[in-house]
Amino acid sequence: VSTMNAKTSSAGEEEASGMRNETLGESGCLGEAKRRQVIRVAYVIAALDLTFLFMQFGVIPYMAKSLGLDSVGFGYLQTIFGVLQLVGGYIFGRFADQFGAQAALILSCASASVFFLLMSLSTSIPLLFLSRLPGVFMHGIPGAQKVITDMTTPSQRAGALGKLGLCFGVGIIAGSAVGGVLSTKFSVYVPAYVGLVGSLINTLIAMVWIPSQTKPKSDHHVAQHSTSQSGSLFSIREILRLMKFPGVMEVFIVKVFAGLPIGLFMIMFSIISMDFFGLEAVESGYLMSYFGVLQMVVQGLVVGKLASHCTEMTLLRVSVFVFAGVGLGMALMRTVWHYCIIAVPLVFAFSMLATITDSILTKAVPSSDTGAMLGICASVQPLTRTVGPTIGGVLYKQFGVSSFGYLQLMVNLGLFVYLLKSKIALGEVKS
User: Fold this and answer.
1) Confidence (pTM)
2) Correct CATH for 233-426 of 1.20.1250.20, 3.30.230.10, 3.30.310.10, 3.40.50.2020
3) What pLDDT digit, counting tens, does each position of 327-354 carry?
4) CA separation for the pair 32, 29 (Å, rounded)
């Protein structure tokens, strides 16, 4: 009997080990140390990519002004970039599913290199508009998310994705500071030169350190089979197919609408900081750095720990409820110090919502479609940047800053009641 029990236990351990290896895929064969190393490399690539991107975000208004582009033209420039990112997000995700996370990251970094090269040559307005075109494939964060999704088990995913917030904080702080110093001391074109060299280095890092195949081998065969049936990289039918999985449509709707009001506010923040708070450019930079530090603390230390102790649906409800409270605070705020206090729960809710919804949605679809799902999720912010200037401008001019807070409060209270009453069926699809 003891021998039979030992054999049964051994067989159970082998089966459990096989299941773990299947979940972790080829990364399981690489070993735990190798998996962690690859994930760390993905964090480094994401941090560098965001740093270079925020360097140009701070410089591009001055570059546009020096070329004679007015505020209306600058709005068109931003809208074009938002539309390209919106369209490219899903295409990039499908590309990652079909050709792998390494190929997707290389495409993103190479596109960023072309982007900065064109920026460095932008001595006229047409060239400046042309430099936006590579933005269609510039998706460093979704590329890193794809690597992390392939390299982690479902239980580890939320914490690992949450740590990308550290990269975002580093990008805001370092990118804004370095871009400002370089453009002030040298020229508005110097950050573009630095971004070009850095993006080329990022491309080499992705080639050398990211494995060519990060998915489970069984999932790779499923992906190839899916690719042969689905056809082109952009397919509305494929988007609709993903939305039909249990819980996907409901969670995605919450993801879009919960963050929309605060997204409109952040788009108008440069104007609000000048007109409503009366801040100078340097003070606005300090405020952005404060946001970056908060983001690093929340996503690096808080999100992962909460995800290990609470269910994801509980954390989703909490983030939506906190967002409603943030809306009330924004409606009542009068000074920049009020905003600094509100920023703490704001960053918490924003970070938690983004991380938890990404984790839920990637678990709810087959692992051969996680790239496409991440691409759809990555299109939410470009969508806000595309429609945001028009809607945000109307709200600010007609109703003032408090209108953003009241909109935030009403939308998220409605979503919170919806999440409490509805029974969203969530399932983890393995293949």
Assistant:
1) 0.72
2) 1.20.1250.20
3) 999 999 888 899 999 999 999 998 888 8
4) 9
